[in-house]
Amino acid sequence: VFIGTPLLALSFVLLWFPPHDHESVVNAIWLALMLTGVHVFFTLVVNPYLALMPELWTDEAQRVRASAWMTAFNAVAQVFAFGVVGMLIANFEHGFAGIGDGFKVGALFCGAVTLLFFLPTMIFIRETPHTTQKEVPFGLVKASLVTLKNPAFVPYIVAGSLLGAAQVLVVETIPYLVKVVVGKGDDWAGYILTGLVLLSAAFIPVVERLAHTFRKRDLFLASLIAFAAVLPLTTMAGRLPLVPPLFHVIACCVLISPALSVGLVIPRAILADIMDHDTAITGFRREAMYNGMEGLIQKIAMAFGFWAVGELFGAFGFSSEEPTGIVLAGAAGGAMAFCGAVAFAFYPLKK
Fold this sequence. Notes:
This protein has a domain of 195 residues: MFS general substrate transporter like domains (Growth Hormone, Chain: A, Up-down Bundle), CATH 1.20.1250.20. It is built from twelve helices and no strands. Helix 11 packs antiparallel against helix 12. The relative contact order is 0.14.
């Protein structure tokens, strides 16, 4: 974390400062290099950062609470990114203090904020003492195979990846749904998505309390089933009699927000349990490997979600004359969530 954070911030800032102020091959190479740097250094920072959770919090309630706080701050960060950074980009369109434009101003600001907010982790958080459990003898290939042999990890990663792909499908579809079906401007899509994030954040304390009463397994399974039911309904806006399309979309967002809150809070605590189960099987602490495998597989699934949106829109249309692709995107997302629920039903840990 200490090594990677400055490099992550630097690569992100440099992404917005290409060598030339016009289109060029050099700029394309620069973009590719800086994007690679952002992803590599993000992994270098976030993987060990997340791997700290099972070490620092061994109690189930503590893990849920830590995950809840992480989710809450993530929600604030998303609103902050869309709101404050958007204002910087708009207000400094022509530059500030010699900085070329608002995007560059925003990039410098985000880089500084990244350094500032990772400082407490680097200064105050200490890992648990080194033990032989951390001396993992596996190479990359064997470590990956051992991870996939964990009977708790496979149902979890299949369910989480399918849910991530389903969320991508619907989030990418909502702007078209709002503009084409509801008849509102692009700004309304932003309002609805921001409202969904804030409403989901408001349910975080409720989710934390529910985790004291119900098993995390049952809560996550219920959220998958809720997504399977509501996502297809969301893109049916304008097709139900007597229901105004805008009200329909907002109502569906309200309905799905508790499930989204569960889906944001509970998986991190579930993964910590899975890591503990791996230690019981292998005798080693392999948190970083699990975070890495989760990130890789879920990114592939989310890329599939982006691809699926394009295919559905291209094949079935996304215009006011032919909106079938928009409707099918919700149905496809619901089907993915349902398959995720079926997979997670085989999750063996009764926690």
